[in-house]
Amino acid sequence: EVRLAESGGGLVQAGGSLRLSCAASGFTFDDVAIGWFRQAPGKEREGVSCISTSTGSTYYADSVKGRFTISSDNAKNTVYLQMTSLKPEDAGVYYCAADPTAAGSGSLHEILYDYWGQGTQVTVSS
What is the mean pLDDT of residues 18-47? Predict the structure, then answer.
């Protein structure tokens, strides 16, 4: 059974940091694309960042470049999203998703991602 489980969300002040984790199981982890997406209340879900677990290549939305870092620990089947300099507009439910074809390793098109976690809440106070 394919499973993605996000953790690490919480409440932080603007300017603070938070690290999200995405633990994966049920598929071969070392040759996929893992993406992070977020959705604020009343807004469309948007792509944040993604990584190829085979090549390590990464991609970031313009809104988070220079502030967020995505990484993969293949030995632990876990992808992390280190978020720094958080802003109120970063708040929302963060989801991780997997593209088993790795076509999403350089893309945040949701249609490429077949498997999704249930999300973790990030709240940023101003």
Answer: 95
